[in-house]
């Protein structure tokens, strides 16, 4: 087993200890899909749409450092080629997951509005995305079977109905991006 796979498995085990229903594939797909959206929304100054996915401080940081994040309407294609779990931590009763990503950018020189380049440009940057796990304990307060109030059992990660004793495991963990660190590789 490679060192990367070993590290990934350790991170996954730590997360599963606190969130047994955590789905690694779900968060990695989320990151792969949200990064191009972040770029698109900020390139066209639609930052209010990002508040659903990112904390305001993160959005503000990206706006203040547009060049570092390659935020420009000249970029024609943004995609995440690789995503992997890197770290999991707890601080002040909040849980954080770090995802290591390889982000590819493509700029077709023919359609640039502001600057004329002689050639197309390509970049491959490494971003580390930090996501805060959002507490889901309050989302299911009524039993789907009988409508009575449900109590949350922290140790079992499930809701139990006060009336019919129905159990409901929460299966989806929500998260918000709190930080994006950029390590440039910069291939042309």
* Average predicted local confidence, pLDDT: 81
Order of secondary-structure elements: HHHEEEEEEE
Task: Identify the CATH architecture of the largest domain.
Answer: Roll
Helix content: 10-25%
- Helix/sheet category: alpha+beta
Q: Give the count of helical stretches.
A: 3
Q: Quote the beta fraction.
A: 25-35%
Q: Biggest sheet, in brief?
A: 4 strands, antiparallel
The first-level CATH class name of the largest domain: Alpha Beta
Uncertain stretches: none
Provide an overview of this structure.
24% of the residues lie in helices and 35% in strands. It has 188 residues and is an alpha+beta fold. It folds into 2 domains: 3-135 and 174-184, Nuclear Transport Factor 2, Chain: A; 137-171, no CATH class. The strands form 2 sheets. The chain has a 4-stranded antiparallel beta sheet. Strands 4-5-6 form a 3-stranded antiparallel beta sheet, with no helix packed on it. The chain is elongated, with a radius of gyration of 20 Å. The relative contact order is 0.17.
